[in-house]
Design a protein that fits this description.
It comes from Agromyces marinus. Keywords: Membrane, Transmembrane, Transmembrane helix. This is DUF58 domain-containing protein. The chain crosses the membrane at residues 53-75, 81-104. The protein has helices spanning 13-51, 56-75, 78-94, 256-262, 292-311, 330-337, 350-359, 377-381, 423-429; strands at 104-111, 114-116, 121-129, 138-144, 147-153, 161-168, 174-178, 182-186, 193-197, 202-207, 227-233, 238-244, 266-274, 277-282, 315-320, 324-325, 366-372, 392-398, 405-409, 412-417. By secondary structure, the protein is of the alpha/beta class. The protein has 4 domains: 42-98; 104-207, Immunoglobulin-like; 230-273, no CATH class; 276-429, 3-Layer(aba) Sandwich (Rossmann fold), CATH 3.40.50.410. The strands form 5 sheets. The chain has a 7-stranded mixed beta sheet, sandwiched between helices. Strands 5-4-8-9 form a 4-stranded antiparallel beta sheet, with no helix packed on it. Helix 2 packs antiparallel against helix 3 and helix 5 (292-311) runs antiparallel to helix 6. The chain is elongated, with a radius of gyration of 36 Å.
Length: 432
């Protein structure tokens, strides 16, 4: 006798009810957590003017005071109660030190605002008392680059001013930010600290060292009126040949004398001419450079070439892996070169860097690629695949201390620069 398969038991009503209750409790818990977070945020925002005055040392003292009181109550040790009271009293005594009005007008002056790496730059901090009474002594902090300058401002009479001078380190190319200037008030133990911001940051541009190149950079750009290319077009100034008329050709290009002689409409063809459009690209991947000084040499090469091309009134686009550099004036270009930094991780191939830069620029007639001594020569040669045959490729390799030389790699010219003062001589010898 065969056994039949039993039908599954219907779900228990109690189990269904428990699941529904669990889901409801979970939803209620999530809602309560969101409400608690909103309430906590509101409380923090409301208390921020007070809690922001407490320094990390102050929070540590408050925590130690609370722990001392708790242990004193739990263990019955009166000594711990005295410790807690002493710590709490220290916080109370520190409160008056953060109060007191300051009516300052503060200014930061940098002279000059732009220097070449290694030149001297000075700063001036001017504090004017705009109040009706003499000010109380205070302390001002001024971030300068990676450092922090601290000034003790004495009592200043109403309407008078006080000045402080400071030096700005300019040994390396950079954009050095001075400011904002903030006044600091607090107790001697550092439990409470009140900061008031008085100024906006001021930038000091430390330009790279550049080499002076001769006008037209010799071999880089020679065509002031236009260079004839191999591209054939129907409208230009350099006559190439005649061909048979095709529907759609402009009648102004018909050569009527030849058409009358042959009995067939003939139109003119021209070789396209092009004003020089130069694309200047530096690959900044750190692994392509043997040292930081070699990277700085490459930046100086870019700045030197770019400044001279701008002075020659040649169309220029300049870029790095991450930056598109201003080329309206030499100063704009030099300001942007101050922001160039080695890229630890990025496009490993120079070709990819150049392709990305060319995508955002007009079609170039000359491309200058700048890289380091550790970049393989094959990387520079691969740039040829990005452009057509009428685009000239020049590669400049920074190799600090090496003999300077000019070589040919495929259809490209590779210029190895061992020192910046040799750049002018090498550029004069370049023949794209």
């Amino acid at each position: 006798m065969s056994r039949g398969v039993s039908a599954p038991a219907p779900p228990s009503q109690n189990r269904i009810a428990l699941r529904s209750a669990a889901r409801s409790l979970a939803a209620s818990g999530r809602s309560a957590a969101r409400a608690a977070r909103r309430a906590g945020g509101a409380v923090r925002s409301f208390a921020a003017p007070v809690t922001s005055l407490i320094s990390p040392v102050g929070w540590l003292v408050l925590a130690a005071s609370g722990v001392s009181f708790a242990l004193a109550w739990a263990l019955g040790w009166i000594e711990l109660a005295f410790v807690g009271a002493t710590l709490a009293a220290a916080m109370l005594i520190a409160i008056p030190f953060v109060f007191g009005p300051l009516r300052y007008r503060v200014g930061i002056e940098l002279q000059p605002r732009r220097v070449i790496a290694g030149e001297r730059a000075l700063g001036r901090l001017v504090v004017h008392n705009a109040g009706d009474a003499a000010s109380v002594p205070s302390q001002l902090e001024l971030p300068v680059g990676q450092g922090l300058a601290e000034f003790v401002i004495p009592t200043i009479a109403a309407g008078a001013e006080h000045e402080e001078l400071f030096a700005v380190p300019t040994q390396r190319r950079a954009v050095i930010v001075a400011g904002p200037a903030t006044s600091v008030r607090g107790d001697q133990l550092g439990l409470l600290r009140r900061e008031v911001r008085w100024t906006e940051p001021v930038d000091l541009f430390v330009h790279p060292v550049t080499a002076r190149l001769k006008p037209s950079a010799a071999g880089l750009v020679r065509d002031l009126e236009g260079e004839v290319t191999k591209t054939i077009t129907d409208n230009d100034i350099s006559f190439h040949a005649l061909r048979a008329y095709e529907p759609g050709d402009a009648l102004r290009n018909v050569h009527w004398r030849t058409s009358a002689r042959t009995g067939q409409l003939m139109v003119r063809q021209y070789e396209e001419t092009r004003r020089s459009q130069l694309l200047l690209v530096q690959a900044t991947t750190a692994e392509h450079y043997a040292s930081d000084d070699e990277f700085e040499l490459a930046v100086s090469m870019l700045a030197s070439l770019g400044v001279q091309v701008i002075r020659d009134a040649t169309q220029l686009e300049a870029a790095t892996d991450r930056l598109r550099l201003g080329t309206a004036t030499p100063t704009a270009l030099l300001d942007d070169t101050c922001r160039i930094a080695p890229r630890e991780q990025g496009p490993g191939r120079i070709r990819d860097v150049v392709r990305e830069a060319a995508r955002r620029a007009a079609a170039p007639s000359v491309v200058i690629v700048i890289g380091g001594s550790l970049a393989p020569l094959a990387e520079f040669r691969a740039v040829e695949t990005v452009f057509g045959s009428d685009t000239q490729i020049l590669a400049f390799r920074a190799e600090l201390g090496a003999p300077s030389r000019i070589t040919r790699v495929g259809e490209s010219t590779v210029v190895t620069v061992g020192a910046l003062d040799e750049l002018s001589r090498l550029v004069r010898r370049v023949r794209p």
